[in-house]
Backbone:
């Protein structure tokens, strides 16, 4: 019997269980990414006595996505961690399946594998769906970034490519990777003594504007020193290979290659009301309005910034709300996003942070040393230190 059967049996036991154990809230967490795992670890800390947690995820490994940007430059692959270990360490159970749809009135969900599972609280952290916006560009897909961009990096190294546009579509996906790819490509060309122009075309008013003025000005200086050009407040169309049309101004940029971010769409889960582009609307406490005890966190949620650190904070907010609902001695806390990010530059990384309000960063700063610990790329209260522990354990075994 494989893992799926074991997990399915565990889930059936989980669904049936409850009559004699009423005081424990049955929580189902759908997702196996940053938000879901942060939420499960937070629940273990806040309400392990008051909750039984089942994680519903199709992936057997958790891939640390942010480091995928280094893969085309022949660095090590992004780290992977077994989900079953993380879930087990958090005192939860794992069902290898997917959330298909929800019956909020009956407090039950259905999985793609045909299970019906009752819940006392449901947390949806299934991420967003990236879709390429431009047919004639290489669109970032972190599941196979090496395959998509390795050829481009090789062509830069060998002097076949002298100009690359890095394009952000009108709706920004994740803020960091396009800057990191532009900086690392420029650094590689410089190291190989190859003349090359990298240009970032973005609707942002300034580089990484979401991190606020102070950080953005420093990022602009880093880009300038690296020879990366910026075209800001720009809406791009890629009408054919090598040609970017820029609005306003009817400008045309001709380049050897074009790399683009995808656009993100929400998961549009049947039974759960969706906002714009299928993202799930939540209140300041991570609750989905008008559907009973359903919560959501991470890229699946309708929020202007899609970022692992923000996803973790949303997960912590939802976990506190669920813990309070379960009767644990904790208070709900409203979401007050702080943006933190490690920017890979091709040289030493920089650490950016800002509070965000109304889609803008303030008290923003850039430092050469991390302002958080561990110095991870995704800043999270529980997942970062937990993964750091797994890394230390693995290093000791080597
Ligand atoms: C190349 C790249 C670089 C980035 N760099 C940074 C960075 O430096 N710092 C930073 O903070 N953020 C960064 N981000 C953003 C960050 O990775 C995302 O914001 C974060 O992964 C969102 O987490 P999530 O758990 O909401 O979604 P995801 O990471 O997308 O995880 C969703 C999970 O849900 C599972 N799932 C999908 N559908 C279902 C279903 N129906 N039922 C159950 N499970 C399901 C998936 O298998 C997956 O495990 C980067 C992203 C990319 C792509």
Residues:
């Amino acid at each position: 019997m494989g893992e799926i059967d074991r997990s399915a049996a565990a889930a059936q036991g989980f669904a049936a269980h409850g009559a004699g154990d009423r005081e424990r809230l049955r929580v189902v967490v759908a997702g196996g990414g940053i938000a879901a795992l942060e939420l499960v670890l937070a629940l273990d800390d806040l309400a392990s006595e008051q909750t039984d947690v089942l994680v519903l995820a199709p992936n057997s490994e958790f891939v640390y996505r942010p480091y995928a940007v280094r893969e085309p430059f022949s660095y090590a692959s992004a780290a992977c961690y077994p989900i079953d270990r993380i879930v087990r360490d958090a005192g939860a159970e794992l069902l290898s399946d997917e959330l298909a749809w929800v019956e909020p009135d009956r407090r039950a969900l259905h999985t793609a594998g045909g299970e019906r599972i009752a819940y006392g609280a449901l947390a949806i952290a299934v991420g967003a769906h990236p879709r390429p916006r431009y047919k004639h560009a290489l669109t970032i897909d972190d599941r196979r970034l090496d395959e998509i961009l390795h050829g481009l990096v090789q062509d830069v190294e060998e002097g076949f490519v002298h100009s690359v546009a890095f394009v952000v579509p009108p709706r920004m996906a994740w803020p960091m990777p396009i800057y990191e790819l532009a900086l690392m490509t420029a650094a590689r060309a410089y190291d190989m003594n190859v003349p090359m122009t990298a240009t970032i075309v973005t609707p942002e008013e300034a580089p990484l504007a979401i991190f606020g003025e102070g950080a953005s000005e420093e990022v602009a200086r880093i880009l300038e020193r690296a020879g990366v050009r910026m075209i800001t407040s720009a809406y791009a169309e890629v009408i054919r290979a090598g040609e970017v049309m820029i609005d306003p101004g009817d400008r045309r940029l001709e380049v050897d290659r074009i790399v683009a971010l995808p656009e993100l769409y929400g998961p549009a889960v049947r039974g759960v009301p969706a906002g714009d582009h299928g993202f799930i609307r939540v209140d300041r406490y991570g609750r989905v309005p008008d559907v009973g005890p359903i919560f959501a966190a991470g890229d699946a949620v309708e929020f202007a910034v899609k970022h692992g650190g923000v996803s973790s904070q949303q997960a912590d907010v939802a976990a506190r709300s669920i813990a309070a609902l379960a009767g644990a001695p904790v208070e709900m806390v409203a979401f007050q996003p702080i943006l933190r990010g490690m920017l890979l530059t091709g040289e030493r990384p920089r650490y950016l942070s800002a509070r965000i309000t109304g889609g803008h960063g303030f008290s923003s700063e850039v430092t050469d040393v991390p302002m958080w610990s561990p110095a991870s790329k995704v800043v999270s209260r529980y997942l970062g230190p937990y993964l750091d522990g797994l890394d230390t354990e693995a290093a000791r075994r080597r």
User: Anything to note?
Assistant: Helices lie at 3-16, 34-47, 83-89, 145-157, 176-191, 213-226, 308-325, 383-397. The chain has two domains: 3-128+266-336, 132-263+339-367.
